[in-house]
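A reminder from the course coordinator: this example appears on the midterm review sheet, so study it carefully.

Given structure:
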């Protein structure tokens, strides 16, 4: 995917899109699935069905870890945040249904309010906001809030 529409792996917009898309995956409920090498900006060279393609397409090029160290650090930090908070790791409908409320306050914004303390998290509440559009002011519930992951920085808090 990293070379979609002729863009190179180093294109800032493409890097941001990839971080946003998989940031949503890593802060969503359920078991996340990340394609092998996504943390290295791996692409499939335009082959959308690589199960029968050879190593020329499917190989992991480990140099990409160095070339895209910032992307690798992003995934590492996002996974650490997920691992540290049970409120981000509910895996069944029954577990998710009670403590999680998901809304779409406007077009291109999805918010999940997680009452994380109910599932044994150190944080009593988690608010996940995925905004694929322009700036959006988030109306926070009463209380003291801390930013834990913002934009391309999972360690922002």
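Designed residues:
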């Amino acid at each position: 995917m990293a070379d979609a529409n002729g863009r190179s792996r180093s294109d800032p917009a493409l890097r941001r899109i990839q971080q946003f898309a998989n940031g949503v995956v890593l802060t969503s409920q359920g078991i996340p699935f990340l394609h092998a090498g996504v943390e290295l900006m791996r692409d499939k060279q335009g082959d959308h069905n690589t199960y029968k393609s050879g190593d020329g397409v499917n190989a992991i090029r480990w140099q990409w870890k160095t070339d895209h160290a910032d992307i690798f650090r992003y995934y590492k930090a996002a996974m650490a945040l997920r691992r540290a908070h049970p409120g981000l790791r509910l895996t069944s409908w029954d577990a998710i249904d009670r403590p999680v409320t998901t809304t779409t306050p406007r077009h291109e914004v999805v918010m999940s309010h997680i009452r994380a303390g109910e599932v044994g998290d150190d944080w009593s509440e988690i608010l996940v906001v995925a905004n694929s559009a322009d700036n959006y002011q988030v109306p926070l519930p009463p209380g003291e809030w801390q930013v834990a992951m913002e934009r391309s920085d999972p360690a922002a808090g």
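Residues 36 and 48 are 14 Å apart (CA to CA). The chain has a mean pLDDT of 88.
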